[in-house]
Amino acid sequence: MKSRKYTIAVLQLNLNNTPENNLEKCKKWVRDAAVKGGEVICLPELYSSHYFCQDEDVDNFKYAEPLYDVSFTAFSELAKELGVVIIVPFFEKRMSGIYHNSAYIIDTDGSEAGLYRKMHIPDDPHFYEKFYFTPGDLGFKTIKTKKADLGTLICWDQWYPEAARLTALQGAEVLFYPTAIGWHPQEKAQYGVNQHGAWMNVMKGHAVANGVFVAAANRIGLEQYIPDTNGIEFWGQSFICGPQGEILAQASVDQEEILLAEVDLDLQENVRQNWPFFRDRRIDFYGEITKRALD
Q1: Active site residues
Q2: Which of 126, 171, 208, 232 has CB atoms 3.0–4.6 Å from 182's, for a disulfide?
């Protein structure tokens, strides 16, 4: 029988390196998180490389890997050794011409508890993900593991309340958001505070509206690899919040860190009993939410 309390861990890392070096680095940080008590451990989005979506270049498809290849093998062995759940976001090569921004959820025995493929794909300046990633086709899922019932959504998914709701309605206790988000340095002074604030607020809102814990794992550092561009300054500030949006742990802007927080299912149940948002949903009037616009 699963415990009513368990500890989750979010890793905030600089990943501006090669796949080989990032793999070894992330394995070390997962070990450290497990030593500190982490039972469900989440890496940032696309852990194995720099954020290559700053431009559209077919050479970047070399960073993709087939299912159950290097990343799965390495973290499966590690999860089994440590007895922890690991969320591993990676660049999936499904077949020639079809690639996904995906995440393994690896259980404590090293087995695959679930696979998530990012559903919402952005196409913004220097976040040219539509060039690389086919939208996910597995839907929004709660994954049952030996430690937790959890939902994994990826970065751009975090702006969509529908994704959080559909995942929470399946029983997710925690929503994990592995992420790669940051500032365009030339815009930071004017827009930076509001951009970061919106990012935090929307996920805290998901926590409140669904009565769930939320954990966001971001990367850090300036990644500036394209000539004559300013790159992206990843803003870090990974966080974990409770079901009332209360901050339980938050990282800095520019330091590599392990965030830990306790998930208390009795607290979650108490919050939902006192704030019964699920009870009062008017599902008989929400049918039009599936339309693009009401015109």
Answers
A1: 45, 118, 155
A2: 232
